[in-house]
Specification:
Blueprint lengths: L2 H14 L2 E8 L2 E8 L1 E3 L2 E7 L3 H8 L2 E6 L10 E11 L2 H7 L16 E14 L7 E3 L2
Antiparallel strand pairs: 1-2, 1-5, 3-4, 4-7, 5-6, 6-7, 7-8
Length: 140
């Protein structure tokens, strides 16, 4: 699989799997939770409340790890591993673009002052379990 095919496959896995695991660092140890991710040319976005542990953790250490794609159907389920750095964004246009009513459980709306978006710029992406291939690393 060439790099362009690999990128296309990674984008497919990300776009088909909006919920994944975000791991941050807390006290020099990993701390993981499920999040919803939005993809824009391999930059990932996930909405959150700025008064959460994850927001505090990425302010202290912006390095994160994300898993997307494994569906639990079997040992050959494709998934991606993404390592990257987070920037906390408070851009109103971005917040409105990502907003949906299901987020109302945690936030009061797209103009809620507690609502922020974590922007993850990957520095490493690996595709796992793809058609019997060994792990495949995308050149970034």
């Amino acid at each position: 699989m060439n790099q362009q095919q690999l990128k296309e496959k990674i984008v497919q896995v990300i776009d088909e799997n909006k919920v994944g695991i975000l791991a941050t660092v807390k006290g020099n140890k990993p701390h993981s939770r499920y999040m919803t991710f939005f993809n824009d040319n391999l930059t990932l976005y996930t909405p959150t409340n700025k008064e959460t542990h994850k927001a505090e953790e990425v302010e202290e250490n912006p390095n994160v790890h994300i898993l997307l794609g494994y569906q639990g159907e079997g040992l050959n389920d494709e998934f991606v591993e993404i390592s990257g750095k987070v920037t906390i964004r408070d851009d109103q246009n971005l917040k409105e673009e990502l907003w949906n009513e299901r987020m109302g459980k945690w936030l009061d709306g797209p103009k809620d002052p507690e609502y922020v978006v974590l922007e993850i710029k990957p520095d490493h992406i690996r595709l796992m379990n793809s058609e019997g291939n060994p792990p495949l690393d995308l050149d970034l």
